[in-house]
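Study both lines:
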Amino acid sequence: MKNRKYFTNIEFSNESIHKFLESSHRDYKIATESKEEIVSFMFIYNSIIKASIALMAHHGLKLRSIPGHHKILLETVKELLGSKFQSNLDLFQDMRKRRNSDLYKCSIHISKTEIKEYLKEAKALLHHIKKLIDK
């Protein structure tokens, strides 16, 4: 795996891994219930990141909090999941860029159509990660 400096090896308990998954699903649920697109967007993004952290924990890796860590996290998940989720993870990288644009430039508009697409793709990823972890 490239970008090892972004991860430390650590053994996680199943309970800890499932807490990340539960938190991911909680954030996804909040995203589905919100009437505000920006709120949905942020909670979808958080759910993707938390599910990705759960997958890394399942592989004995803890993400380090250093600049660029979300980008590297999504790239690593893309490597681990292979071709089935390539387009999903490219979409999630675009979400990361848009989130950063909102944080640093306050310039983001999210449509209801985009939210529907993000929800659909995030749901597929969360389901797949949960299935891998529960094997």
